[in-house]
Amino acid sequence: VPDLLTSARPEALIARVAALLEAGRTGVARPLLDAARRLAPPSAQLSQLSAMLAIREGRRDLAQSELDTAISDYPDNAALRKCRAELRHCLGDTAGAAAEAAEAVIIDRRDPTAKALLGALMLELKRPQDAIACFADAVTVVPSHPGYREGLATALEAVGDYEAAFATLTVGIAAAPRNIGLRNAAVLLAVRQQDFATALELAEQANSECLADACLFGLQGHALSSLGRHEEAADAYAEALKLGPDDPSVRHLVAASGRVPPKKRADIEYVRAVFDGYAETFESHLIALGYRVPGLIRGAISQHPGILAGLPLGPALDLGCGTGLVGVVLADLPIRPLVGVDVSSRMLEQAKAKQLYAELRERDLLLALAEDEASWELILAADVLCYFGDLQDFFRLASRHLGKGGWLVFSAEEHVGDSNGTTRYDDWVLHRQGRYAHSFAYIERMIREMGFAVRTLERQILRRETDKPVNGIFGVVERPRT
Amino acid sequence: MKADTSRDLLRRGIPTAELTLLNPTTDPQAPSEIAARGMVQLANKLVTEARTSLRLAVALGDSTPVTVLNLALAEVQAGDRDRGLELMREVERCAPGWDEPPLRLAETLRAADRNSEAEVAYQRALDLNPRRDAALLGLAGLLIMRGQGQQAQSLLLRCCGIAPERADAWDALGLALLLTRDNQLAESAFAEAQRLSPRALLYARHRVDAAMAAGSHEALLAVLEVSHADDPLNPVPVAALGILLGRLGRRGDSVDAMEAAYALAPDSAVLAALFAEYLTRANRFSEAETILRRASELDPDNGQYRDAHASIMLRLYRHAEARHELLASIERNGERPGELCNLSNATSCLGLQEESVELARRAVSLAPESGWVRRSLCNALPYRDGITGTELLRALKDCSARLPRHTLPPLTTNNPDPDRPLLIGLLSGSFKAHPVGWLTVAGLETLDPATFQIICLAQNAAQDWMARRFRSLACAWHDVDGLNDVALAMKARELEIDVLIDMGGYGQGGRMTACAHRLAPVQIKWVGMQNHSSGLAEMDWIITDRWETPSELAHVYSERPLCLPDGYVCYSPPPYAPDVSLLPALTNGHITFGCFNNLAKITPRVIATWSTILHGVPDSRLVLKTHQFGVVETVERVRKVFRDHGIAANRIELRGPSGHRAFLHEYNDVDIVLDPFPYSGGLTTCEALWMGVPTVTVPGEIFASRHSMSHLSNAGLTDWVAPDLPAYVELAVAKAKDLDALATLRSRLRGQVRVSPLCDAPRFGRNLGEALRYAWSEWCDKADRRLRR
């Protein structure tokens, strides 16, 4: 049985480790680095690679000690400084990371990567002007580098200079026409500016140059949808799904177009993405749509016997509380404590600012109910059932967590059988807009099966969209006392 | 230096210390000196010189047993085994108390596969010297080969006691313990072998096997993951980690570990070949080819490396190079079934269909009872001109009947409720950008998840975006590479798969032998080397349609046809397909026919027929595009055949490989596609349609001959189907003469195809769902009747 002999050369191993780390392949890099350290004398490069690998492996203490020693041995090595900047960033010390990156810039003023790193950290520190200076320097050194241009464009957008941001990306695209990141950045910039025609033009131009990319198709779908070209949007989303089949948001939108069967509920990631992106304009948008549900809820709860008797009501759980609109309309009623649950952290930030909730939980509502051990006197679900098709779990869990005599107040969009989305199921459909609608009979059946007593179950107009009423179902049901 | 000293050093195992003896400076004529020189030469592997010296020594009168025995060894090593054995027996007679001659005799006999005689000789050596470790080990090795683990252990325990430093003895003990399923003890024995010989890859491999058998793989994993830190220059623990990770199904990590091991020992042919094997499993063929080439360079005499290299070149579509490599290997080593099968494949892909069939038949004649060898014939026949359904079915049945089958208990766990949600198992090595992917994934994505849940059983799973589509549509994914056929069948049964759809057939990564063990109560053949019936008795249905399998051809299938109302596949066009151009003829001033199918489909009769069409359409051109035209020799050969039919060279353009997008883009140079026969275009026809180019086709009897008819019919182009060859020629010529109609069709064809059943995924999903439900209900009916009986 022959022995396997080591024949690797140390310089080849070191070069290989550097390439592997660049490619993020730490599993291969580790044994090769250990071998290189045995074969080659100590050097700044070996220390830097060791520290980088330790960072990638999550061994931050090891990286820290490696870098501290190496920097004291090689104080003028920019690569070691950049590496320590990365480590500090990983540790959440953005300011410290920026200081290290600045040291790297001082050590090697021609190093564009140090400048770009400092620029990125400046952006995080909300110092976009400084970021612009850094990225501009990096772009000057390597004008065709897509990453530097993307960084510069982001910084320019952050100071509101959209034209310059756009021009930066346009020049970058001309210099690196196959770079998909720059294309996406340009389309996204146009989308954020609500300039959907430009976004579409850019996306189509990329498509015609055969830059097939899931994100690009997704953005194209978004632009088309915003322009009211829904069938074409569905085509674009379907193409996005081919290339990014594991993207739950795209899958949901494709399902909404009827191209693939809908799931029983919208993916949590989809809902979170929608509302995180929507949080800042959510309330003004709903007001513009004549949103009626909070008012309906207030009206119903005002008739609660306890409230009518002047007694406090609680605890109350607001599922899908969003920015806290329901909390606002209930603020003058003796409902406490009021706990809000929402999947979007950005929406919860808005709710928190209102200081109306005793507690706010960032959680999917079904998970929150499933894990909850409390018993509630009031559970509210305003405009959230539209992210669920199958409501069995929702009503079952709500029933389990309502105290005897407790109320469940909810709204749902009504499926009246003339769906513009799929009609695969009689009980519910997923509409093109990505929201589910439910038939009145289905809701009635769920309520009955879960043993609720109906206090109110009626058709209501929930809001208006494109000047048309959105028909819905509004319900107040009670868990029987016996 | 004196001969006595040299012998003493040799005994102490220091052959190179005596190289000076190779220069005959001291009394070269003395027989004892000549013999000593011969022994040194032998120890230094200078076999011819050693034999000459030792023969001379004996001829000059040195007949001492040591000299004669060394001459015997030299004779054996020089290739004259019989003479060597004769001399050894002579020495044994002359020196009856010496254990060395029977030991050497035993080892020579064992090397000649004369194991019974070897056993007797080993026993004689042990009778003379019961503590002779080499004899104990050698005899134990023979017992292990005979499966007599217990007896081997007894010998090996003695051996390890006598020579505890012998790593090979501990290794053999481990193998003997594995035979008696003392797996933990076996792992300990291998661990000791590894401790003694830490750079021996074989022992590390054996230890992984034992740990897997003993269920102690997690502990070994923990050991291996840190062991490189103790000895970072040793590639063996890293390679062993790779092997173990591979056995645990962590393919990516296993390839990474192999890459690291190979980087530590880039001059090791063994590691290169091993790394290539893992790269191949991970579908990284191009890298595997480079590494295998390196392995062959490092060890040019190793036939296995060359065969593996040829196989990987086949997978890279480098058929001509693979064929050369295989022919050279056969020339060197003689004809062996495996190589002939590979050669048949390479030959078929070069468009030499008759020769390919002949090679496959030769392979079958060498191994007539091997189902796997017959598989090559089944894969060659569909391309052969004039093949009939009956002939192909017979070959398929001959093949499938010979697949190895182990008796498994009957399937009883699936609940025969016709209406309940079903678990559908997809079995394939092609869940990737491959015809299987392009033609099935969209339909599978639209199966109603409330009634059908999909489990993918993946062989050599890929990581491309098409593979991710399959992963997304599946409720569970199982890599099955590490499972043998029985284990795979048991796995599928444990999962309680109701309907198993095979999407691999007899092709690369296909697991038809597992299907022979029945993975599910209902087994269905679908896309994936679906050139015809599977011939497999255990395959219940074949998914097809009325164009592929009209009722009058159902008798040439072993399965029942599960006919979908539209097409049997649903094409998912690539998101990066270029736009359709205007009809090229309008700017070129002449018609351009094209065919982008595999050269394997282009028979001499196809070329003759196309030549007739070219003669019928003056000034027309023909563009053929296939991987094989990347090789000048192939291009020249095909060009000559056209020339022999009177077609000028400037009318034929033979284009080599390109990326998929560029491939599609080249349809913008083509006005009409000419389908080959009898093996028609499948995915290629769909791609041409998507690029606005219609195909003229002529269906035959076998499934593979009717793909284009199915796709064209579903796309609304039934008028492009000819009933026979004369009509095929007439149709092509007639279509070529109506440029207006061609231009109009081209301008609307993509839109037409997009909304046609060929691409209507939701419609296909409903059809497929109904068909699966029907097949399931049939089984439930039968199960119900069985229960009532």
Summed up, what is this model?
Chain A is of the alpha/beta class.
Q: Could you describe the 3D structure shown?
A:
- The complex is a heterodimer of chains A (482) and B (789).
- Chain A has 24 helices and nine strands.
- Chain A has helices at residues 10-22, 26-39, 44-56, 60-73, 78-90, 94-107, 112-124, 128-141, 146-158, 162-175, 180-192, 196-208, 214-226, 230-243, 248-256, 268-278, 282-288, 293-301, 305-308, 325-329, 345-354, 365-371, 392-401, 440-449, and strands spanning 316-319, 338-342, 359-362, 376-381, 402-413, 428-430, 436-438, 453-465, 468-478.
- In chain A, helix 5 runs antiparallel to helix 6, helix 10 (162-175) runs antiparallel to helix 11 (180-192) and helix 12 runs antiparallel to helix 13.
- In chain A, 56% of the residues lie in helices and 13% in strands.
- Chain A starts with 9 loop residues before the first helix and ends with a strand.
- By secondary structure, chain B is an alpha/beta fold.
- The model of chain B has no long low-confidence stretch (mean pLDDT 93).
- A seven-stranded parallel beta sheet of chain B has the order 3-2-1-4-5-6-7, with helices on one face. Chain B has a five-stranded parallel beta sheet with strand order 10-9-8-11-12.
- Classes of the chains: A alpha/beta (482), B alpha/beta (789).
- At the A-B interface, helix 1, helix 2 and helix 14 of A face helix 10, helix 12, helix 14, helix 15 and helix 25 of B.
